[in-house]
Amino acid sequence: MALTYTQMKTQSEDPGFRRRLEIALTQCAANTKMQALPAGSTDATQTGEEDRLAREIVLDPTFWAAKFSEDVAVQLISKSTLLDEAVTTDADIFSAVSAVFDKFLTTPA
Q1: Which of 30, 40, 68, 88 is a good FRET partner for 11, with 20 to 30 A between their CA atoms?
Q2: Residue 22: inside a domain, yes or no?
Q3: What span, in angstroms and rounded, lies between the C-alpha atoms of 75 and 68?
């Protein structure tokens, strides 16, 4: 059975889920969004915006996990729980992070 909105909200705030989300965010930021050299402050391209956000995430993944948690949970609504690693795998969380990443850009893509 899929998550209800109430379950989604409660489970998205769970410390264990947030810790897993921090790692997924860091992995996505450092390995797929961050460029070799920092984007210039006037670089308004999607790649530049993604690079800047990725660098912010790497510096404070706990803050960003709190920001991303509800949007990631919405991506995972078909799951019966976010808290059981056998049901919602690390790959599921990483895919959900990748799917919502650009929603958090300063300049929408």
Answers
A1: 30
A2: yes
A3: 11
- Biggest alpha carbon–alpha carbon distance for the chain: 47
Per residue in 12-57, pLDDT (tens digit) is 999 999 999 999 999 999 999 999 999 988 898 999 999 999 999 9
Q: What is the number of alpha carbons within 13 Å of residue 27 lying toward its C-beta?
A: 14
- CA 35 – CA 55 distance, rounded (Å): 9
Domain that holds residue 29: 5-104
Joined tokens for residue 101: 């990443």
In a domain, 109, yes or no: no
